[in-house]
Amino acid sequence: MAANxxxxxxxxxxxxAGCHGTLPMIAVVRPCxxxxxxxxxxxxxxxxxxxxxxxxxxxxxxxxxxPATSPARIVAVVPPPKPVAYKVEGGAxxxxxxxxxxxxxxxxxxxxxxxxxxxxxxxKDGGTYxxxxxxxxxxxxxxxxxxxxxxxxxxxxxxxxxVGTVMTPIGPQSDNGVEHYTIERxxxxxxxx
Length: 193
Known about the structure:
Elements: E1 2-9, E2 21-24, E3 33-37, E4 41-45, E5 86-92, E6 95-101, E7 108-112, E8 115-123, E9 126-135, E10 138-151, E11 154-168, E12 171-185
Antiparallel strand pairs: 1-2, 1-4, 3-4, 5-6, 5-12, 7-8, 8-9, 9-10, 10-11, 11-12
């Protein structure tokens, strides 16, 4: 199959003399395809399939598809890294507790011996803590403050201190106390939020 062709200047004036001819084309072509040529001319090919080329280029047909925009950039979604879980273990006197902590800037708890200790950070370096429950058959309550010791970006030790009270048959008995905890990386997963 052949199609008529004509070369037009960019200024849209009449075809350049002697530049009419035919050009072999594939079977399916769009009507009126304009091709820019480095010489400052437009090549108008396949206009009307066998019809003479128009005197000037035709405007685009409304049914033509709009020019393709650049494809949307595909960005791989990478899940955030899993937080590192730390096992905190220790206590004082008759109480020993453990817990898994993944963020020392969010509240966490340690459990043991029927007692739960609640830690509320003011920063990653420490905050306040409290407990209220039963230990060895006696009611206990207390708490005050705790601190976390870091080496680089890893927590290694924790210490809690404050006044603890035991409810005894002869009345409440209070004393200052200090708890010591070790912190190690854990293979256990972080607790559900």
